[in-house]
């Protein structure tokens, strides 16, 4: 069959056969189908969609397009978590040590920052000496030894996704539920986890801005898991403001350490407990959400979670124990407060712009070749609903040099919207999605939309 016929078929809104989808994934992985034909099919999929079978087939074919990690040497089901990406979203560095301290095994492959969102690998590398490039043998040994490891991808996982993602990025075809779902789940399946808990973000800093789209993405990913025989659960959580107060690599490590030390709390801790309790339940280490949260809270109080993070950093080469002394993390030389331009309530934040601001001062890569400055970023001092007076600091910028200050102050003053009326309080968790059901937070079901 000529590839153009597959494009024409999808253009007409017809379902593709499993064989046609296999040719698509194989063509992407091997380069045997040119980018312009892949682009045309991706755009047709954006307009016409994929049904549940097509989406599952695409996921499985993308997974099979490269290597798969074998975690069977670990003798326990490994549980993984994945966030669709956010700002100040340091849940991995809080949740992974906590659930490992509660007896679960986590063998996690993480990513780098993408666009306005931060990446766990960049955060881990801000710890002096800490590495993310372990061999697969070292990775598995570490998980057997201490219960957790977070590293970068070693093998050639999902080459079909790699080329499709690069094309989607420049052809306006990223924002499409079946394409996002197959991209994420193919990588999670290839990385070998036995159970997966997803954190699907919704709001101004998320891939999906509306609750409806976010729930649809969550349900699609959970359904693929069911077809693949893997338990997948998803929480849909708010990204209408940075989740933690700290945005930037070493700054986010500091916040994770502060939380595991019991010195800090707030939304980052709350979402971490929600995710972690589902991870513990997924591998039979907790009986209920309450039981999981109780175990993790105890692991904070006893210091077991912080010790686990310290063990993980040390096993991955850390030369300084930042868990005992956060001042050993890289620190930016210049700190500048961003004053509120007027009196009022913080009614909304353009969280994507806050992420871009951090990226532009050096916490993320603007071009692929950029190197990250681990020390820089920003610390939020206001949350949605807070009342501020003109001139009071809304956040503090941590900069490499003063010349970046004016543009960054302006960007933050534009990103944080101050108004007369306090905004409505929103939940942290909007929905929980399992193979059986979608449970919404009170007042947020589809009938209320
Ligand atoms: N993250 C992914 O891995 N793939 C997507 O398509 C979107 C976000
Ligand atoms: Ca990420």
The arrangement of helices and strands along the chain is HHHHEHEHHEHHEHEEHHHHEEHEEEHEEE
Please give the domain count.
Answer: 3
| Parts with pLDDT < 50 across at least 5 consecutive residues | none
What is the third-level CATH name, the topology of the largest domain? Pyrimidine Nucleoside Phosphorylase, Chain A, domain 2
Overview in brief:
The protein has 449 residues and is an alpha+beta fold. The chain is built from 16 helices and 14 strands. Uracil (URA) binds at residues 84, 165, 174, 179-180, 183-184, 207.
Would you write up a description of this structure?
The longest helix has 18 residues, at 211-228. This protein has three domains: 3-49, Transferase, Pyrimidine Nucleoside Phosphorylase, Chain C (Transferase, Pyrimidine Nucleoside Phosphorylase, Chain A, domain 3), CATH 1.20.970; 78-326 and 432-438, Pyrimidine Nucleoside Phosphorylase, Chain A, domain 2; 331-419, Pyrimidine nucleoside phosphorylase-like, C-terminal domain (Aldehyde Oxidoreductase, domain 3, Alpha-Beta Complex), CATH 3.90.1170.30. The relative contact order is 0.14. The model has no long low-confidence stretch (mean pLDDT 95). The strands form four sheets. Strands 1-4-5-13-14 form a five-stranded mixed beta sheet, sandwiched between helices. A four-stranded antiparallel beta sheet has the order 6-9-11-7, sandwiched between helices. 44% of the residues lie in helices and 15% in strands. A hairpin with a 4-residue loop joins β13 and β14. The protein has helices at 3-11, 18-30, 35-48, 52-63, 91-101, 120-125, 136-146, 159-171, 177-190, 211-228, 249-260, 267-282, 289-301, 304-315, 351-363, 405-415, and strands spanning 79-83, 106-109, 148-151, 195-202, 232-238, 246-247, 334-339, 344-349, 377-380, 387-388, 393-399, 416-419, 429-433, 438-440. It starts with a helix and ends in a 9-residue tail after the last strand. With 449 residues, it is an alpha+beta fold. The protein binds uracil and calcium ion (CA). Uracil is lined by residues 84, 165, 174, 179-180, 183-184, 207. Residues 83, 85, 111, 117, 119 line the site of calcium ion (CA).
